[in-house]
Specification:
two-stranded parallel sheet; single chain; 66% helix; 2 domains; mainly alpha
C-alpha cells in the first residue's frame, strides 16, 4: 500500500472516529459528574497511547538500521510520551491497550499495518526514514491538537500539550536532517546531477505503487516518483542550473 494511501486512510478513519466520539461526548456530558471521562475521552487516551508506541517502535527499528543518533534520541522521547499517557490510564483506572510491549505489536490493527508500511518505506534509505519520521509527527500533531480541543480536563490537557511540544520538536529535527529537497546524491545542492540520477532509476511514473526511494526521485515521501515530486522540490528548494 502506498504511504500516502495509508495516511489518507488513517486520516479518514480518524475523522470518522472523531465524529462518532463528538456525538458520544455530547450525549454523555449531560449525565456525567464533573471530573468523569466520557467514552470519547477514554478512546482518545487509549488511541494516543498506541500512537506513541507506533512512533517509538518505528524509530527503534530505524536506529538499528542507520547510524544517525536522531532515531535513538527521539525513540527515547517517544517512550516518555508513552509513559505520560500510561500515567493518565492509571489515574483514571483504564485498561491499557499495550498488553504486549513487543515492537510492532498493537491492540488496534490499524497500527499494526502502519508499522509494517512505515518500516518498509523507511528501510529503503536514510532520507526515506527521515520522511517517515515527518509523516508520523505530522499525524501525531494533528491528532493531539484535536484531542486538546476536545478535552475538558486540565491534567489530560497538560499531558497532551507536552506531547504536542515534543512532536513539533521531533518534526523539526527530521526536517533539518533531510536538508535540501531534491538533493538525491546528497552533495548539498539540487541541480542537474540530481535530475540525471533520479531519471536513471527508471521509476518515473512507472505505474508501480510505492516502489521509489528518495534517491530514486520520491522527494515528497508518497512512495512514488512522478510529477508531484518535481513540483514539491521546486517549491521547497532552489534549483541550481
Amino acid at each position: 500500500m502506498k504511504t500516502a494511501q495509508w495516511l489518507r486512510r488513517h486520516r479518514h478513519a480518524g475523522a470518522t472516529h472523531r465524529s462518532r466520539l463528538l456525538v458520544v461526548d455530547t450525549l454523555e456530558r449531560r449525565d456525567l459528574a464533573a471530573g468523569a471521562l466520557t467514552d470519547a475521552e477514554i478512546e482518545r487516551i487509549l488511541f494516543i497511547r498506541e500512537e506513541e508506541k507506533l512512533a517509538r517502535d518505528v524509530y527503534l527499528t530505524f536506529a538499528e538500521q542507520y547510524s544517525d543518533q536522531v532515531f535513538d534520541n527521539i525513540a527515547r522521547s517517544e517512550q516518555k510520551h508513552m509513559d505520560a499517557v500510561a500515567g493518565l490510564i492509571n489515574t483514571y483506572q483504564l485498561e491499557d491497550p499495550v498488553l504486549d510491549d513487543t515492537r510492532g505489536v498493537y491492540t488496534n490493527p490499524v497500527f499494526t499495518q502502519m508499522y509494517e508500511d512505515l518500516v518498509d518505506k523507511g528501510s529503503r534509505g536514510i532520507i526515506d526514514a527521515y520522511q517517515v519520521g515527518q509523516l508520523i509527527e505530522v499525524t501525531d500533531i494533528d491528532d493531539l491538537a484535536i484531542a486538546i480541543d476536545s478535552s475538558d480536563h486540565a491534567d489530560i490537557d497538560l499531558v497532551y500539550q507536552n506531547l504536542l511540544k515534543g512532536s513539533n520538536n521531533h518534526l523539526a529535527a527530521f526536517t533539518s536532517h533531510i536538508g535540501v529537497v531534491g538533493d538525491s546524491n546528497q552533495d548539498g545542492v539540487f541541480d542537474s546531477n540530481d535530475l540525471m540520477l533520479v531519471m536513471q532509476s527508471g521509476e518515473y511514473e512507472d505505474g508501480v505503487d510505492n516502489n521509489s526511494s528518495y534517491v530514486e526521485g520520491d522527494w515528497n515521501g508518497d512512495g512514488d516518483f512522478d510529477t508531484t515530486d518535481f513540483v514539491f522540490a521546486l517549491q521547497n528548494s532552489s534549483y541550481e542550473s
